[in-house]
Amino acid sequence: MYKIDSQQNRISPLITKTFSELGFSERHHLQEWLVNTPAVFGEELLMIQKEFAGFDDTKERLDLLAIDKEGNLVIIENKLDDSGRDVVWQALKYAGYCSNLTKNDIIEIYQKYLDQYFPNDHVKASDRLSEFLEIEDLQTKLINTSTSQRIILVAANYRKEVTNTMLWLSQFNLSCQCFKVTPYSSNSDLFLNIEQIIPPPEIKEFMIGIAAREAEEKTVDIQLKHRHKLRREFWEQALEAFRKSPCKLYNNISPSDDHWLSAGSGVSSLPYSLIFSKKEARVELSISRAEPDANNATFEYLKSYRDQIEKIFGHSLEWLPLPGKKSCRIQYAKPFDGYDKAEWPSMIEWMVTNMIKFEQAFAPHMNGIYQLLKQGQWQPKIHEDE
């Protein structure tokens, strides 16, 4: 690895170091770096515990425990300058222990982590997990199924027996990854390179494709099938009511198994959406273009007309910029028990009434948004001297 000197138009080699000679430790340094920057693994992971010792009849400690966007537990074992011989066996034991954790166990483990390390935030673990997994109700999500556990090893150097075993385990549909971490120095500056070596990056997408295909072939959980049937039945009744109403947005929309149903507003990636959940009904405008800056500009454009929009709609709206995410949202909601069919007529009537007003409030501004996006006014200005 080389450092670029743009002024001299030269490159100079960085000096490879070991963690030991730099005085870094596994627990107080490498582990903390990973906890606070999980993006180094190339995906979104939510750290839910460190130094986890909640295994029955054993005093062993798992370095890091995380959960991925699919609800799978991720066992992360860190080593410094050498992986050691027994790290695979150690990680497999932890994966076996974690395979028995229930959803309530995971919530409890994460709550203890939040209470210990973020006591002033007063956050409920179940709410944070729902937000991370992007679901309305945590009870509707399958988490930590029996063979879904993943293993990630982190070390500066790997013994051959470790890499061979990890590659072999990968053939049995067990998600195994090895990341190599290398510290470098240049004068007083220190650098850290983190790269995935198993599976090799060039075959990662191929392996993901195989796993996705196999996942699709698995039998769907009975409860999930029931929920899908319930949603489709609700949307069939709701769409029938919309077709009889003055609102024509959903005339060409088909029932869905999802908790949402969207219709075009005339501007790409700005759909009018109906939300059906166990706890509430909602009408919303989702601003979800690929460019975050375009979403923010659109959101601010509409917000500048907030008084006018809310006056036409007849109620105050929730304006959600959702910082840190690509999309923004403007919504209006009302509590309902969505899984009680006796409430469906009221829910549907509420959706129809409010979507009519919702469209009337926002439609006059769609041409302005279209021109804003077409002309690229949301893009940052580039000065000639840059």
What descriptors fit this protein?
Trna Endonuclease, Chain: A, domain 1; disordered C terminus; five-stranded antiparallel beta sheet; Yope Regulator, Chain: A; about 375 residues; about 25% strand; alpha+beta; 14 strands; single chain
Overall tally of structural domains: 2
Q: Count of DSSP E strands?
A: 14
User: Termini, distance in Å?
Assistant: 28 Å
> Helical stretch count?
12
Largest sheet composition: 7 strands, mixed
Task: Indicate the structural class.
Answer: alpha+beta
Q: pLDDT average, as an integer?
A: 88
Residue runs with pLDDT of under 50 for 5 or more positions: 381-386
CATH hierarchy: architecture of the largest domain? 3-Layer(aba) Sandwich
CATH topology of the largest domain: Trna Endonuclease, Chain: A, domain 1
Helix content: 25-40%
Strand content: 15-25%
CATH class of the largest domain: Alpha Beta
Shape call = globular
Radius of gyration, in Å, reads: 26 Å
Order of helices and strands: EEEHHEEEHHHEHEEHHEEEHHEEHH
Account of the protein in words:
There is one protein chain. With 386 residues, the chain is α+β, with helices and mostly antiparallel strands. The protein has helices at residues 19-22, 26-36, 87-98, 103-117, 125-133, 160-170, 201-217, 222-243, 292-303, 306-313, 344-362, 366-374; strands at residues 2-5, 10-13, 15-16, 45-52, 62-68, 73-78, 150-155, 175-186, 189-198, 260-263, 272-276, 280-287, 318-320, 328-335. Strands 3, 4, 5, 6, 7, 8 and 9 form a seven-stranded mixed β-sheet that branches. Strands 10-11-12-14-13 form a five-stranded antiparallel β-sheet. The longest helix is centred in the middle third of the chain and has 22 residues, at 222-243. The two termini are 28 Å apart.
